[in-house]
Amino acid sequence: MISQDYSQINQRSDSSNSSQYRCQRDLSLYDSSTLERLATQAATGRYLQILSPILSNASAIEVRLCEDDYPGWIAAQDLQHLTLATVPYQPIGFSEVEIRAKIPAAIAFTRAAMSQPNEYLWGGTVGPNYDCSGLMQAAFASVGIWLPRDAYQQEGFTQPIALHDLQPGDLVFFGSAQKATHVGLYLGDNQYIHSSGKDQGHNGIEIDVLSNQSTPVSCTYYAQLRGAGRVVAAYQPTQTR
What we know:
Layout: H1 7-15, E1 21-23, E2 27-30, E3 38-42, E4 47-50, E5 60-65, E6 71-75, E7 82-84, H2 96-115, H3 132-141, H4 151-157, E8 159-161, E9 171-175, E10 180-188, E11 191-196, E12 204-209, H5 216-222, E13 225-230
Antiparallel strand pairs: 1-4, 1-7, 2-3, 4-5, 5-6, 8-13, 9-10, 9-13, 10-11, 11-12
Helix pairs in contact: 2-3
């Protein structure tokens, strides 16, 4: 429950859905008001909007992250870690050429993340623990390029490419015929880096091969390979389109 006076935040969120706040520390966002399952994380400095009035007995607050339009719920006590944004989030557009120039740094981010002790975390976008699409989003965000949050969203956002045209920095997608459920970052030489879970992966960040004649983990994911996509633009939030 809310134990402090957040009337000013409540007035702003109730009177205008355009008010934005910035996170003063890393925050967890959950997929429902029960706060039971992590949906994503908001790193310090990220922007968010409060989507509904804040009730005095609320234990969870519905929000939307501004950079990727991702919805979720934060614990009411985390309101104390928000401050009103003096300037709203301003998305940056990049040309494809500019994006290609940033790819080596995005790849370096994933390799540095792998070098730290880590494990797979569903909903993880803040190191050291990531889920698959969280690692991709964090890597590109580290160079100023925002991607959608989930693997299937990233697949829909990227430019589809043939596997024989893969270049370092492209995303490779895995899953069922219906939906992408896993994503990795192509490194070249038929290798990709990804954060995979315990059931069929490494429980953390590792490098695997696009082959059905390699390690058991590589073979398992290769059997679920859907295709690949190239990042040719930065995500633009819906309110700025």
